[in-house]
Fold:
Amino acid sequence: MSEKIMLAQHGKTEFRIVTARNAIPAERHAAEELKNFLGKITGADYTIYFDDEPACETEILVGDSARVKELDCGIDLPALGQEGFTIRTVGKRLVIVGGRPRGTLYGVYTFLENYLGCRWFTKRVSRIPKRCCVELPGIDNDTQVPVLEYRDPFCAGNMDPDWHARNKSNSTMLEVGDMHGYKMEYFPFVHTFDQLVPVEEYYDTHPEYFALVDGKRLKERTQLCLTNPEVLEISINQVRQWLREHPKAQIVSVSQNDCFDPCQCEACKAIDEREGSHAGTLIEFVNKVAEAIEPDYPNVIIDTLAYTYTRKAPKHIRPRRNVAVRLCSIECCFAHPLSECDHVASFASRSWARDGFSNDLRDWAKVCDRLHIWDYTTNFAHYLNPFPDFKVIGPNIKFFIENHVTGIFEEGNACRGRNGELNELRQYVEAKLLWNPDLDTDTLVNEFLTGVYGMAAAPMREYYDLMHAQVAGSDVHMGIYDTPHSPYLSLNFIRKADELFDRAEMLADNSEVLEEVKLARMSIRYLKLTHIPVEDPSRKSLVEEFAQDLKNFGFTEIREGMPLEESIDILRRGDLKLVNT
Structure:
C-alpha cells in the first residue's frame, strides 16, 4: 500500500506540478486547472515545472512524461485509449496520466472530484471546498476507461466547454479546441439526405432520384431512392467533399430526412421485403458509401439512423465495420425503464413501433458492431412541461450498455438560454451516469440540489419526488409530446407543487438561489396558465407577467422550433395549438 501524501498544510505546499515540455495543449490545460483549483482549495501556490528540469520527491505528475517513464509505475497507456486515465501515488509523488487527447484532463477533474470533493453543477454554480490541510491516502491504482466512446448530455442552454470537460462529456455540439482535447467531430450531424442530394438542385431534372410513394415521386418531405446508382455516386462524392472541408471529422452522417415515406419503387421494395424492414435499403446504401470512402479515410465512421420506419433491424444484411447505427427511442414511454415498458406513444402508433423498442435494440445489438443511441429527455411540444424521467435515466443507460451500445446522445431542450424544467439537474445527472452508470441517481440529485438550492434544497427535493410520484403507476405513460393537460399533470399536482415552491422561495439563502428557484417554478406557472380559461379576467396580466419573466431569464423557445414571441402570442390567445400537440 502506498504511503499518505500531505499535499498542502495551512496555505503552504512542498509540491510542484510537473508536465512534459512537449505536452499537448489539453495536458497543459490539465496542469493549469489543477494548479488553479488546488490553489482555491488550499490557499497554496503550486508551481508548474517541465519534466526536463531537476526532479524532487514531492511532485504531481500530470500527463505522460519522461518523469513518469523514469518511475516505471506500470501504467498501460495504450489500454487507456483517448479518454481513460490512471491516478496513483508512487512514494511521495502523485501521478495523473491519461490517454490522448482528453484522458489526462479527465483524470485531473476526477481527482479533484473524488479525492478533494469538487463539483461543477452548472456553468454558474460549483462547489470548491476550502481546506487548510489536504492529506491524500495512498492510491494504488485508480484507473477509469469509459465504456461509452460518445457521451452527449445535450441541453442547448449549457454548451459551456469547461462544464462539459469537467463532467467528462465529449458532446459533438461543443465549440471546443485543442485546450479541451477537441471532441468527437461529427459532420454533418443528422438527417442528411437532402444535403447529399438536394431536392432543389436535382428534382426538376431527375425526379427519379427521390422516393416513389403511391406511384408519385415526392418533392416535398421526401427521401432518396436508395437503389438508384446515380444517387449513390452523388452521395459518395458529397461525403468526400465534406471530408475534404472538415478533415477532423470522425463521423459523417448519411441518414434519412426527418419525415416518413421511404421509396416504394420495385428495386427498393424488393430489398425491404427481403430484409423485413426499410432499414434494408438504408444499410445496403450506407454500406456502399462506407466501402467507397474507407481506402482514403480508414478511420472515418459513416453514421446512419434507425429511426421511425428504419427502426427495425434488417434480417440478413449487416452494417460494415466502419458504419455506426444510431437507434432512436422517439416513440417510447419515458416514465418507465425501456427494458420494462414497450408502450408506444399515440403519435407514433405505426407498424414499425409495434414490436417494441427493447426488441429492436436487442436485434440491432446482434448485427451491429458500432451501435449508438439517440434518446430523448424533454417534452418537445412544451419545453416547460415537468418531465419526470430521472428515475429511468440510469436504468436505460445500463440497458443500452448491456446491449453493446457504445455511444449515447441524450437530446434535451434546445432553448439557447436559461430554460427551466430542472434541465441543468438533468444534464448533470446524465453526464455523471454516461461516464459511470453505476453511480446512484439519488446521490447525484441530492448533492446537486444542496449545491444549487442551499436551504431551499428540502422543498425542491419534495417537488422532485412529487413530480415522479405522478408517473409511478405502471399504467401511466409519458411521451415527448404530451399536453399540459395530461393526467399526470393534474390540478392537484399543480396545487401541491405551488405550495412547495412557496416554501422554497421563502427558504432561499440569497438572491442567486431565489432566482434558481423561480426559474424552476416557471414550469408550474406555465401549467397553471394553460388551465386558466381565456375569459378569466386575471389571465391577461398573468400571461404578460409570465412572458416578461421568460425574456428576463433569457428563454428563446418554449416549444421546439417556434420563436418565443409566437409561442407567447398563442398563449395569449389560449389557442389549443399550444395545449394540444
About this structure: The radius of gyration is 26 Å. The longest strand covers residues 405-411. The chain has a mean pLDDT of 95. DSSP finds 19 helices and 18 strands in the chain.
